[in-house]
C-alpha cells in the first residue's frame, strides 16, 4: 500500500461515513423503524457500487478511494448484526431471519448484477 492509497482511503471514508448517516436517517424517516431499512439500504447501495467498481476494473487508486474508503464507510456489517440482534431481543424472529438472509442474499445479488453489468460494458 502506498501513502497515496492510504490518503485516498481516508478521503473516501470521510465522505462515506456521513453519507451513511444521512441515507440511514432519511430511509428511517420515510420507511419507519420497525425494520432496519436504513441499514439495508446503505449496504445494498454499497454492494451495488462496489460491484460496479470491480466490474469496470477501475484500478488501484480509484478502488482505494471509492471501494475501500467510500464503500467501506458507507456500508456497515456491525450495524447489520446489531439490528438483527435487536430484532431477536424484541421477539421479532421472522424479521430477524428476513434481515439476516435477505441482507446477505440481496447484497450478493446487487454486487453480482452491477459487476456483470459494468464488466459487460467495458
Automatic annotation (TrEMBL):
It holds the Pfam family CRCB. Na(+) is not transported, but it plays an essential structural role and its presence is essential for fluoride channel function. This is Fluoride-specific ion channel FluC. Keywords: Cell membrane, Ion channel, Ion transport, Membrane, Metal-binding, Sodium, Transmembrane, Transmembrane helix, Transport. Fluoride-specific ion channel. Important for reducing fluoride concentration in the cell, thus reducing its toxicity. It is found in: Cell membrane. The chain crosses the membrane at residues 35-55, 100-118. Its main location: membrane. Belongs to the fluoride channel Fluc/FEX (TC 1.A.43) family. The keyword Glycoprotein does not apply. It comes from Actinomadura algeriensis. HAMAP family: FluC.
Amino acid at each position: 500500500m502506498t501513502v497515496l492509497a492510504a490518503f485516498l482511503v481516508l478521503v473516501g471514508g470521510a465522505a462515506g461515513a456521513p453519507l451513511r448517516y444521512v441515507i440511514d436517517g432519511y430511509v428511517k424517516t420515510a420507511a419507519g423503524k420497525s425494520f432496519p431499512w436504513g441499514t439495508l439500504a446503505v449496504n445494498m447501495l454499497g454492494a451495488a457500487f462496489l460491484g460496479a467498481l470491480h466490474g469496470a476494473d477501475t484500478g488501484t487508486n480509484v478502488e482505494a478511494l471509492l471501494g475501500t474508503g467510500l464503500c467501506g464507510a458507507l456500508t456497515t456489517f456491525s450495524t447489520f448484526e446489531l439490528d438483527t440482534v435487536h430484532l431477536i431481543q424484541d421477539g421479532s424472529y421472522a424479521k430477524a431471519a428476513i434481515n439476516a438472509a435477505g441482507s446477505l442474499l440481496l447484497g450478493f445479488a446487487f454486487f453480482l448484477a452491477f459487476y456483470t453489468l459494468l464488466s459487460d460494458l467495458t
